[in-house]
Structures are given as structure tokens and as C-alpha cells.
């Protein structure tokens, strides 16, 4: 194996948890300051306490039950260790070597080879794969993709994404979706998928398998409707925006992702 492949990858979830805490403190601080200023103007400085309580409750609600909200956007069936023995064996082998907790596992009926990981603070996470994924990927490709998903859970990337999706949903209710989109763009590392890919290659027995999995996804077709689960997906169809026959539903709420071709090129270079 090319030694250049061994690039230090952040495994701790601390940086992503810190981003969430920073956003919570920022929202609470700004909200309290606004209420304090208004209170001073009308001679009621105690309004600052109302702001502190109100915005504190708001920030507490962000990300709570976000994992369930994302999963509810999909039609899921719990995976079982008989019908999906390969999936369970791969997850068990990888989590034992990495020390991860066992995530909940689900399947969905999409013909596209979907695979995604969702998590939130304090959760062991959830992994979802489609029937198309199970039929398309062989064992080493499955192992490579699952390693990528487990890294996203372990590093807190999936939890941060859940938090920001929840934040966008809450802000949209009060007409501030544009502000939420800006916050997301500044909070998300657009290279996270690249780091996840590299981490997966370093964790598996046959690193080229991830390239093979990405190439299969780039050639796959079929309707995909994942709603708010889009930012969590390992890969999505890359139908040109001008294609009138596109049936994919991939909302853009500030999450950017490198193209499949770019990810494949990076992996081939290392």
C-alpha cells in the first residue's frame, strides 16, 4: 500500500461538538443582548432574563430528536441479521476494530445504491442502506462504504449535520431560512466527505474497494427521493440540473459536497 495514503485524519468528535456548542452560545448570547437592549429602552432590563430563558430553550431544542426527524423522511425497514447477514457481519467487524458502538441498521427500497449515516449528540447513530446498495456492492465494497459511514458517526460529522438540518428547519418556521443557510455554509467543512473517504481507505483491508463503490454509484440510475437526508448520503445521483427527466429530490440548504469524480480522483492519487 502506498504510504502516502496514511494521512492523519481527525477521529475525535470534539471539533464538531465544539462547533455545535459555539452556535448554541452565539444564538443565546445575541438573543439575550437584543432583549437587554430593548428592555433598557423601555425601562425593563429584566427582559434580558426572558431572552436568556427563551433563546436558551430554543438552542436546547436544536438537534434534539434530529436523528428521528431525518429517518422519518425515509421509508425504512429494520435490518435483520438473517436476511442481511453480510451487512451485520461487516458492521460488527469494523466496529470491533475501531471501538465504535453498534448503530441501528435499516434498509430502504430505493434502486439507487444509497447508504447513509445519521446521528445526534449522545446517540450510537443509525446506518441506512438501500436494496439497490445490497444488490450492487460486493463484500469489500460494502465494507469500504460502511467504514466511511462509521467514521462520519465517530467523528461527529453526522451529528453536526443533524444539528444543522434541525437548525435550518426551526429557522425556516420563522422565515429565516436564508440566515440558516449562511450559518450552515460557514459551519460545514466541505471536505468532510473527502476525509471520510480517506479514513475508510485506511480502515479497510482493500482500499481500492471504495473507489470501485464510488464508480458504481456514478454509473447508477434510478429515482431518489431522500428529502432532508440528502446531506448524510454516501453518494447521490449527479443528474445535470437541466435534465428534464431528473426524478431525484436532493434539496440544497447550504450543504456542499464534492463530485463523485473529484472524490474518485483524490483516492486514486493517494
Looking at how many chains there are and whether they match, the oligomeric state comes to single chain
Distance between the termini: 10 Å
Rg of Cα set? 20 Å
Which structural class matches the secondary elements?
mainly alpha
Largest sheet: 4 strands, mixed
The CATH superfamily of the largest domain appears as: Metalloproteases ("zincins"), catalytic domain
Number of discrete domains: 2
Kindly report the average pLDDT value: 85
Strand-residue fraction? 5-15%
Please state the overall shape, judged from the principal axes of the Cα atoms: elongated
**What percentage of residues falls in helices of 4 or more residues?**
40-55%
Fill in the CATH topology of the largest domain.
Zincin-like
Specify the number of helices: 11
Number of strands: 4
Task: Please list the strands of the largest sheet in the order they lie side by side.
Answer: 1-2-4-3
CATH class of the largest domain: Alpha Beta
Listing every helix as H and every strand as E from the N terminus to the C terminus, the arrangement reads HHHEHEEEHHHHHHH
Description:
- By secondary structure, the chain is mostly helical.
- It folds into two domains: 10-61; 67-160 and 189-269, 2-Layer Sandwich (Zincin-like), CATH 3.30.2010.
- The chain is 54% helix and 6% strand.
- It is built from eleven helices and four strands.
- It has a four-stranded mixed sheet.
- β3 (115-118) and β4 (126-130) form a beta hairpin.
- α10 (208-219) runs antiparallel to α11.
- Mean pLDDT is 85; it is low at 1-5 and 240-251.
Amino acid at each position: 500500500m502506498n504510504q502516502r495514503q496514511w494521512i492523519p485524519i481527525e477521529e475525535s468528535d470534539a471539533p464538531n461538538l465544539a462547533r455545535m456548542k459555539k452556535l448554541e452560545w452565539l444564538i443565546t448570547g445575541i438573543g439575550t443582548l437584543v432583549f437587554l437592549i430593548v428592555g433598557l429602552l423601555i425601562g425593563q432590563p429584566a427582559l434580558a432574563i426572558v431572552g436568556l430563558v427563551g433563546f436558551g430553550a430554543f438552542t436546547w431544542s436544536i438537534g434534539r430528536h434530529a436523528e428521528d426527524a431525518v429517518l422519518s423522511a425515509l421509508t425504512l425497514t429494520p435490518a435483520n441479521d438473517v436476511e442481511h447477514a453480510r451487512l451485520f457481519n461487516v458492521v460488527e467487524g469494523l466496529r470491533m476494530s475501531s471501538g465504535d458502538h453498534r448503530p441501528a441498521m435499516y434498509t430502504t427500497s430505493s434502486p439507487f445504491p444509497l447508504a447513509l449515516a445519521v446521528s445526534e449528540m449522545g446517540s450510537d447513530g443509525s446506518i441506512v442502506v438501500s436494496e439497490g446498495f445490497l444488490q450492487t456492492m460486493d463484500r469489500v465494497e460494502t465494507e469500504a462504504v460502511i467504514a466511511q459511514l462509521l467514521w462520519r458517526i465517530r467523528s461527529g460529522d453526522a451529528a453536526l449535520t443533524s444539528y444543522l438540518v434541525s437548525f435550518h428547519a426551526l429557522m425556516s418556521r420563522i422565515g429565516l431560512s436564508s440566515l440558516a443557510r449562511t450559518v450552515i455554509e460557514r459551519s460545514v467543512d466541505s471536505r468532510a466527505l473527502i476525509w471520510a473517504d480517506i479514513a475508510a481507505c485506511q480502515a479497510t483491508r482493500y482500499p481500492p474497494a471504495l473507489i470501485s463503490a464510488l464508480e458504481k454509484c456514478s454509473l447508477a440510475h434510478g429515482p431518489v427521493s431522500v428529502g432532508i437526508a440528502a446531506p448524510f448520503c454516501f453518494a447521490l445521483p449527479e443528474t445535470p440540473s437541466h435534465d428534464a427527466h431528473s426524478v431525484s429530490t436532493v434539496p440544497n440548504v447550504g450543504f456542499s459536497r464534492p463530485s463523485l469524480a473529484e472524490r474518485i480522483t483524490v483516492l486514486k492519487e493517494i
